[in-house]
Amino acid sequence: MAEIMPDEAPQSIPALLARNARRFGARPAYREKEYGIWQCWSWIAAAEEVRALALGFLALGMARGDHVAIIGRNRPALYWAMVAAQSVGAVPVPLYQDSVAEEMAFVLDHCGARFVVAGDQEQVDKVLEVSARLSALEQIVYVDRRGMRKYDHTRMNALADVQAEGRAARQRFEAELAARTAALTYDDACVILYTSGTTGRPKGVVLSNRNIIETSRASCSFDGLTEAEEILAYLPMAWVGDFIFSVGQAYWAGFCVNCPESAATMMTDLREIGPTYFFAPPRIFEQMLTSVMIRMEDAGALKRRLFERYMAVARRYGPAILDGRPVAASDRAAYGLGDMLVYGPLKNTLGLSRIRVAYTAGEAIGPEIFDFYRALGINLKQLYGQTEASVFITQQPDGEVRSDTVGVPSPGVEVRVAETGEVFYRSPGVFVEYYKAAEATAATKTADGWVATGDAGFFEEGTGHLRIIDRAKDVGKTADGSLFAPKYVENKLKFYPSILEAVAFGAGRPFCTAFVNIDLTAVGNWAERNGIAYASYQELAGHPRVLEMIQGHVEEVNRALARDRMLAGCQIRRFLVLHKELDADDGELTRTRKVRRRIIEEKYADLIAALYGGADSVYTETEVTYEDGRKGHIRATLAIREVAPVAVPAERMAAE
């Protein structure tokens, strides 16, 4: 790559790549596992791959300001495509790889993508399915050649061929590439990332080089990230979390991005890499904990007793040892023995043995789940962020990590809480605009740069830590005036391995109720051990013994809520176990697995009415989307369970 800016002031991601090729040279920049073998590219090699692809894009006619859609699983070639597009003055637009064709059509049409870089045949097929409606689309470039031989290649090329063309045309386009890359400024668009669309159509968030680089610089400094870190890039490339970790911070600090072979091998690949820096939404940590609990239930009596005994030790002393607080020598020795017998092997099995810093974000994590990992000695921290903030709004400093706060404002970020309780922030990471949505931009960002988060929260006195209660629009009160915070209740429920998802209702209603999704793996394993036969998810979800087990979990959650002065009124009085998993393809979840509450309330209005109507069962028919895109209906009669509320302790009533 041609030198663009001095090392001290890189103004773009391509400028950082050039700096890293000079500074880190042969250090690993990317690894990818393919056919069971890890392949590695140094920073010099990665820069050459990007350069060849950028020259190839010029040969295809890519212009400044063009939008280039990137679709596929995490692969070095797709990250290179993003940086190559930036190098020629174009703007990458990553899409969720599990989106159906109709969802892709909206984003591709809205951003006016001229070029699509797709990972494989599946992604190409989805683009071709809607291509007649995409007036701007001119070229599709694909990475994996499998299955592509008989396609019409009039407007289609293999990525390797585009790179080969770029290398062959180096003499013709080298000066043009150098000029375009050198012309990139701090305030040019770096990427457009579409929001998950929890309440409507996704919005295209335009983030500049300044947004990404300043945020990456500050966050790397906060946690002391260096070129020695190893991360696993497995989260959707369209999500801002992956972009800031796998592109922004990786290019600022110069650390290595490791791409797993597939979603199915992710846990195996995680163990092989042993990352030092790890980021995952709460759902990943929930799934890991579920797998641990399933293994423990299947283990022998001695192993179970060891696990239970030393996890009790870990819960008492692990967080204090992790934070460097004083712990008695005998207690530290007991913890050390537990680390040798239980925690160490468990962390190794999970692939978390080398973790120096781990983060969770995207939505609130259940405190029990959070505390479990910290008890093991894993430096798991929470951050609070948004796509519009280039992720970082608040972070937890080492030694100040708690499950009930999201930390203090990140470096360079100002945070304030309005009289309404809504959280606002301002920072160098604040997005430029929503693409083609001036009114939405003005409604979210003030003229002086303050952004409304839509979340309700408050700063703790004394610590300065921010506590997020819930989405401002979701926080409400029950009919008797009790505070209702659905996400808090849902996270309490999801601590149990048998509960995959939960949706709570109660705002403006006489009491709280809930839908529950069982975790098929965990509950199926439990059913097998208990001699319960079933033929489908629906049959297992409706089994009387499964309902009894879930009722036990709900009762435990109610007991915990009764001990919380603010949220005692959120106790669940009635619930049902859904006959199907909530699914993004059915519009019930976003592609980042967030609950779409309004859609669920509309779609399952009959079930909600039954929860509040006093019936002990309800018949329902639900439209579902199959893997091949076909629609169908499933029918079920769902049992509704009553749960007795737990009395609030008298001293807490008095405190109120």
Features:
Rossmann fold; disordered C terminus; disordered N terminus; alpha/beta; 28 strands; GMP Synthetase, Chain A, domain 3; globular
Describe the structure.
- It is a single chain.
- The chain is α/β, with parallel strands linked by helices.
- Among the domains are: 13-275, ANL, N-terminal domain (Rossmann fold, 3-Layer(aba) Sandwich); 476-655, 2-Layer Sandwich (GMP Synthetase, Chain A, domain 3), CATH 3.30.300.30.
- 40% of the residues lie in helices and 22% in strands.
- Helix 2 packs across helix 3 and helix 2 crosses helix 7 (170-182).
- The longest helix has 22 residues, at 301-322.
- The chain is globular, with a radius of gyration of 26 Å.
Task: Identify the overall geometry.
Answer: globular
Task: Determine the number of helices (DSSP H or I, runs of at least 4 residues).
Answer: 22
CATH architecture of the domain at 13-275: 3-Layer(aba) Sandwich
Radius of gyration (CA) equals 26 Å
CATH class of the domain at 13-275, named Alpha Beta
Q: Report the structural category.
A: alpha/beta
CATH homologous superfamily of the domain at 13-275? ANL, N-terminal domain
* Unreliable residue runs: 1-7, 652-656
